Amino acid sequence: FSRYLSFVKGVVDSDDLPLNVFREILQESRIVRILRKRLVRKIFDMIQEISKSKNNEDYKKLWENFGRFLKLGCIEDSGNHKRIAPLLRFYTSKSKEELTSLDTYVENMSENQKAIYYLATDSLKSAKTALFLEKLVQKDIEVLYLIKPIDEVAIQNLQTYKEKKFVDIIKEDLELGDEDEVKERETKQEYNILCDWVKQQLGDKVAKVQILKHLSSSPCVLVSGKFGWSANMERLMKAQALGDTASLEFMRGRRILEINLDHPIIKDLNVRPC
Fold this sequence. Notes:
The protein is an alpha/beta fold and about 270 residues long. The chain contains twelve helices and nine strands. Strands 2-1-4-3-6-5 form a six-stranded mixed β-sheet. The N and C termini lie far apart (about 65 Å). This is Heat shock protein 90.
């Protein structure tokens, strides 16, 4: 039986089942396999029914006590992702202090939004004050807050929901669906000297310097590489590294500095000879 559903207790009424010679545990058989699948489905039907009940407090209590088990299911049971995902609940940049389902998030998406955006951090307070939110808040795009250690791993295992890909907003390849490639190329050429100069000053502390995709009011921000760990994942791995700093340094990669061309500091740097 699935480990992540161990919080469910009950009695199964069935015909005789084959026992091993010690008569203490069930033998693996076709009947047992069928029972296991049906039990899992029945459990999900029960939880789904509670989540859709008029009394929201019932599911809120269930989620507070057992939500982490369902998140574990995202990691351990890929075959039931479609049943688990609608049961997940997260805080978002628009939900204030209330938890939101993925169904509600998708329903509130604009027609032009192609992805489900998320931010993984260590607390709700840190998420609300993160610089990475600036551009998305300005464009009225909702962001999921992943504030529990298991959240980011669970979402990465889901990968998509209702054909919408999950996208980490702190990664360098962030796309919001309104990119103008020609304008971006012209801007990059205009500020190329400044980016090279800043990179030269910082040396190996950053992988590269590039034009912003995340900011609207701050001068700059450090983002993760496309294939690198997020800051939250790095924090989790550090806690488990057991002193293996060489391996940790290799996996996390260097950060990328994004600069905001509309900020006075960056404008002033660009007009001065570098």
